[in-house]
Structures are given as C-alpha cells and as structure tokens.
Amino acid sequence: MRNGNSKLVMRRDSLTDLPQLKIPEGYSLRSFQPSDVTEWENVIRISFAREIAFGDKIGFQPPFQPEKILFLCHQDMIVATAVAWEKEDSDPRCGYLHMVGALPGYSGQGLGYTIVLAALHRMREEGKRQAVLETDDFRLAAIRVYYKLGFLPVLLDRDHRDRWAIISNQLPTVSRRDL
Fold first, then answer.
1. Which terminus of the chain is more exposed, N or C, with fewer CB under 10 A?
2. Contact predicate 87/96, CB 8 Å
3. Do β-strands 94-102 and 77-85 pair in parallel, antiparallel, or remain unpaired?
4. Could you give the residue ranges of the DSSP H alpha helices within the chain?
5. What helix, strand, coil percent values describe the chain, rounded to 5?
6. Nearest 5°: phi and psi at 30?
7. What is the per-residue DSSP string for 99-149?
8. How far apart are alpha carbons 164 and 128 in whole angstroms?
C-alpha cells in the first residue's frame, strides 16, 4: 500500500485469445534458478522504488514453484520479470500476475509487454482461464501494458473509480469507458 490506499485490481476475463508470444531479438526467456535471488530483488527494487525481499514475496510463499517466475534476459542479465502466480484462497481457474518489473534502461522496447504476455501464456498452459493482478497508482507504464493486454479495472473500494479516472487522464491511450 502507498499513502494508505488499497491496491488497485485489474482482471483479464479470458486467456484463450492471447497474442502470440514473440521474444525480441537478442533476448531470452527463462525461469527462476536459485542464483537469481539478488538480480530479482534488484529489478523489483528499481521497479517498485522500495526494497522487497524475494523470500517474503515469493520464496517462502506456498507453493513455491520456480518455473512460474519468469525472466527476460539480455546477454545473460535479467532485465525484466513477472510471476505467473496463484493465490491459495482464489478460484483455481484464475491466475495471479505478480511482481512485474523491468530495468528502466531497457524501457521502450516492449519488454514489459513481453514478460507479462509470457506469464499469461504460462498461466494458460497451466489450465488457468483468466488472470487478475494488483497494482499501484504510480505504476503507469505497467498499467499501460496491462490495458494493452486486455486487463480492465475492478472497482473494489469506494475510491477506486476516482483513482482510475486520474490514471486515465495520465494515460491518453486508456479510455474512461473502461472504468
């Protein structure tokens, strides 16, 4: 939570019509290996502007499944990550897009779109039919990607409509009709 606000929630109602996954030239896609903890924490710290321990968010959470933690790499360096997670208390047909981040030096190359799409493909391969995510108001670049991939806001709290309206004013490609 930032500034006392609850997380914003977005949902993609179907994973059947996902775009084809294309990894940009010069990049590779892979899943988590035990030696990746420090690099994951670095990408996430930069993306979220705060320290987040791998063990607290991913590694100690049941069920830990390293194949669900995806990385885009450039010359063996992790530059983007997303997790095709699931929440224990949610619908087993619904995937949870978790901890999406990318290094800013690689922005503008479609890497956020690619890593999120890779996570959605992973969810679909696991039999998930839809996906949900939580995000913060300040993560405008990520929200733009989520909209582009068919996620729409879910209004859960009293202030969500107003917060989404502010976001749509900051993102010209987002239509107010989606709120």
1. N
2. yes
3. antiparallel
4. 37-48, 54, 111-125, 140-148, 160-170
5. 35, 25, 40
6. -150, 170
7. EEEE-GGGTTSSHHHHHHHHHHHHHHHTT--EEEEEE-TT-HHHHHHHHHT
8. 27
Sketch out the chain's domains with CATH numbers. 8-178 (3.40.630.30)
Strands 130-135 and 94-102: parallel
What are the tokens at 41? 């924490």
Q: φ and ψ at 85, to 5 degrees?
A: -90, 180
**Is 151 strand, coil or helix?**
coil
Whole-number Å distance between alpha carbons of 143 and 5: 17
Helix axes 140-148, 111-125, angle to 10 degrees: 50
Q: For residue range 67-80, what is the model confidence (pLDDT) as tens digits? A: 999 999 999 899 99
164's tokens: 């989404």
User: Residues 53-66: pLDDT tens digits?
Assistant: 898 888 877 667 89
160-170 helix and 140-148 helix, angle to the nearest 10 degrees: 90
The single-letter code of the amino acid at 11 is R
* Average pLDDT score over residue span 112-132: 97
List the one residue out of 178, 15, 43, 168 whose CA is nearest residue 112: 43
Q: How many CB atoms lie within 10 A of CB 59?
A: 15
